[in-house]
Amino acid sequence: MQPRIRPDFISPQPVSEYAYDGPAVKCHCNKLAPRDTSWSDLNPGRRFYGCSDFRDGGCDFFKWYDGKMCNRATELLRQLRDSERNLLKDNLALRKNAMDLVAFDGNHNGGSSAVDIEVEGGRSICGIEGEVALRKKVLTMKQKIKVIKKEKSMYKMLFSCSMLCTVCIAIGFFFGSTCKRHVQLAVANVD
């Protein structure tokens, strides 16, 4: 018997079903084989049985539960899968932007946020206080770094100016005393 290679089943939310209708299906390891859903390009949405330890050194047991779908159904499921993945990606980006806005608003309104953005299931983004607090800290640290960099450049400029002044005073003192001596000699020669 030639070993079968298990298909790629990247599911947006992988769900292995151990409780399913019909007789229990066991793999070559004699363990209950869960029913999973394939999200590969060739078999999107098609369910199958496979060894629960397949990725961790288990056996190569594999058996389709659903029959082959027509090309139109396969294409539609592929499009729906891709749309769902894009929506999940967009949702994550929007949640990140919303948390950044909440953190920004909290830093500029005395620490309390008037922004209340609702996301999935009626939850409010403000309920994710740990992430918001962390983003506030990061934003605060970035602002402090900006201030420190400005202060550092001001101190550098102040130091440069004070060194220039010191050099000018030293030069003035040196030339001032030499000029004074030349003037005294000139006055002495005139008399």
UniProtKB/TrEMBL annotation:
InterPro entries hit by this protein: Znf_GRF (IPR010666)
Positions of the GRF-type domain: 27-68
Keyword Membrane: yes
Signal sequence coordinates: none
Transmembrane segments: 154-175
PANTHER family: ZINC ION-BINDING PROTEIN
Protein name as catalogued: GRF-type domain-containing protein
